[in-house]
């Protein structure tokens, strides 16, 4: 069993989409019983809110679902509970490292698992470019799952 926490700032745009996309990928690969995933934000602004409409629409357009997700903030126990804390951008990653320096080995950038030069997932909160965010999330999740499968074999 691998437990994965996707992390962004508000937990309403990028990390909920990553959670939903990764869940669908794992299900499609027949690996649903081997993974648990969740998402959280480093900030508290949007606690309790559903994912943004743009992220929900991107998920629907690509056969994934964000139903039932509600924003929460990263908490201290997450660093023990999860095997991986996957940050959407460098600022989120720095915040996670500051909260728990001892967990550095399980804190990674999602796009470190892609070949793309850009290593930060685009934040669509201000410009609504959810298509770019989806593409990066999909690429990163695919690379991350391939990495985990290669580790397991
Ligand atoms: P997210 O996007 O971190 O991908 O959920 C944002 C959500 C909220 C804010 C910024 C980014 N905000 O400033 O409230």
SSE arrangement:
Blueprint (H helix, E strand, L loop, with lengths): L1 E7 L5 H15 L6 E7 L11 H9 L16 H4 L2 E4 L2 H10 L7 E3 L20 H23 L1
Helix pairs in contact: 1-2, 1-5
The structure holds 4-nitrophenyl phosphate.
**Structural class of the secondary elements?**
alpha/beta
Bound compounds:
4-nitrophenyl phosphate
For the largest beta-sheet, the strand count, sense and barrel status come to: 4 strands, parallel
Give the spatial strand order of the biggest sheet: 2-1-3-4
The CATH superfamily title: Response regulator
Q: pLDDT average, as an integer?
A: 97
Helix content: 25-40%
- Please state the overall shape, judged from the principal axes of the Cα atoms: globular
Low-confidence stretches: none
Number of self-contained structural domains: 1
Distance between the termini: 14 Å
CATH architecture: 3-Layer(aba) Sandwich
Determine the number of helices (DSSP H or I, runs of at least 4 residues).
Answer: 5
Evaluate the radius of gyration: 14 Å
Instruction: Name the beta content range.
Output: 5-15%
H/E series, N to C?
EHEHHEHEH
Counted beta strands:
4
Class in CATH?
Answer: Alpha Beta
The CATH topology assignment is: Rossmann fold
Summarize the structure.
By secondary structure, this protein is α/β, with parallel strands linked by helices.
Keywords, separated by commas or semicolons:
153 residues, alpha/beta, Rossmann fold, 4-stranded parallel β-sheet, 5 helices, 14% strand, binds 4-nitrophenyl phosphate
């Amino acid at each position: 069993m691998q437990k994965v926490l996707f992390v962004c700032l508000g937990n309403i745009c990028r990390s909920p989409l990553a959670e939903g996309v990764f869940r669908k990928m794992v299900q499609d690969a027949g690996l649903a019983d081997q993974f648990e995933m969740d998402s959280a934000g480093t900030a508290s602004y949007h606690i309790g809110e559903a994912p943004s409409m743009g992220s929900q629409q991107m998920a629907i357009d690509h056969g994934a679902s964000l139903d039932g997700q509600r924003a929460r903030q990263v908490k201290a126990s997450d660093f023990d509970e999860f095997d991986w804390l996957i940050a959407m951008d460098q600022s989120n990653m720095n915040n996670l490292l500051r909260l728990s320096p001892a967990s550095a080995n399980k804190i990674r950038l999602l796009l470190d698992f892609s070949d793309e030069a850009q290593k930060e997932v685009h934040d669509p909160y201000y410009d609504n470019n959810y298509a770019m965010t989806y593409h990066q999330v999909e690429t990163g999740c695919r690379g991350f799952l391939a990495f985990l499968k290669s580790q397991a074999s």
